[in-house]
Amino acid sequence: MSEAFPSPFSHLLHTNYAASAEETRAIRQLIHSPRQELSMLTEDIDRVQETLNKLVHRQTLLKTHVDAHLALISPFRRLPREIILEIFIQCLPTDRNSTRSLTEAPLLLTMISKDLRELALSIPQLWTNIHVFLPHCSLNGQMDVDQMEELVQRRREGVERWLTRSGYLPLSISVHLSGYGRLTGSDSASYISFLECIVSFAPRWQRIQLHLSPFFVNLLNTLVNDLKPEDVPWLESVEIFYNSGAENGRASAGVYPSYTSHQKPLLPLGDLIVVHHPYNRSPSIIIPKTCINSNFLGATSPCNPVAAIHD
């Protein structure tokens, strides 16, 4: 790096050398003019910076006003509502259910503008599927039980609002509830409330996939025990996965007649929710649905599980 001015002390710069009294006087005399120039440069920079700030402020003001006018003639604003609706629907994930993330549709679509937010919230097709992850307090040392209960409660309320926006359309719901242990008392109340929320939408269930611990599968079985085939007219499939903590397993999965066939579901939902415990080593059984009746499924048990039922 070149020097700003010649100096007889260059070889001593950036060292721990301490100048003598005579050298101190020489140094003060040497830097007198450069210090004056430095002061003037600082004043010049301040003036230029002030001018630049004014120019930037004017630029921002002009750009904001120009952009506001350009928005009035935006081609997007002239699109029919039906076209915008289809664009929004095409923004949804196609390989999985939507998540409650502000970085993807449908929630991302509510962040564009006030008008588009109101439009997005009014389109039932955007809110017919959802994936929710529920943490377990025992797996999250940063939260105590009360904080976790509040978090699960907020997610339950969010899911309820989400699915309510879907109107009367069939639903695809997937839930992943982490944790393996048994919860008791108030520890489980928020989780049970969440499952009750999911079950409350059973009349519009179409595809359901739940990743739960065996404890929560048993709770779910209790919650759906009173459901009859006519209570789930849209239902096509139910999949229950569990994690015992040592080995992943899959509970029974039932594939129902498609609602487009105008047929009522033939199988009681409760009969399909049978936990496959790790000690059960029965191979997966693929059985045509047409060969199954409710008497057959009623005979299944944890020792004789049906792994899958397919068309």
Low-confidence stretches: 251-262, 264-268, 274-311
Mean pLDDT: 78
What is the percent of helical residues? 25-40%
Q: Order of helices and strands, N to C?
A: HHHHEHEHEHEEHEHE
Count of alpha and pi helical runs: 9
Sheet with the most strands, sense and barrel status: 5 strands, mixed
Global structural class: alpha/beta
From the N-terminal CA to the C-terminal CA, the straight-line distance is 78 Å
Whole-angstrom Rg: 34 Å
Overall morphology:
elongated
Number of strands: 7
Name the beta content range: 5-15%
Question: Brief overview, please?
Answer:
The protein has 9 helices and 7 strands.
Account of the 3D structure:
- By secondary structure, this protein is an alpha/beta fold.
- It has two domains: 18-69; 128-310, no CATH class.
- It is 40% helix and 14% strand.
- The protein has nine helices and seven strands.
- A five-stranded mixed sheet has the order 1-2-3-4-5, with helices on one face. A two-stranded parallel ribbon has the order 6-7.
- Helix 9 (294-298) links the parallel strand 6 (286-288) and strand 7.
- Helix 5 (145-164) packs parallel to helix 6 (186-200) and helix 6 (186-200) packs across helix 7 (214-223).
- The longest helix is centred in the N-terminal third of the chain and has 41 residues, at 32-72.
- The chain is elongated, with a radius of gyration of 34 Å.
- Mean pLDDT is 78; it is low at 251-262, 264-268 and 274-311.
SSE diagram, text form:
Layout lengths: L20 H10 L1 H41 L8 H10 L23 H8 L7 E6 L10 H20 L6 E7 L8 H15 L4 E8 L1 H10 L13 E7 L4 E8 L13 H4 L13 E3 L5 H5 L9 E3 L1
Parallel strand pairs: 1-2, 2-3, 3-4, 6-7
Antiparallel strand pairs: 4-5
Protein name: F-box domain-containing protein
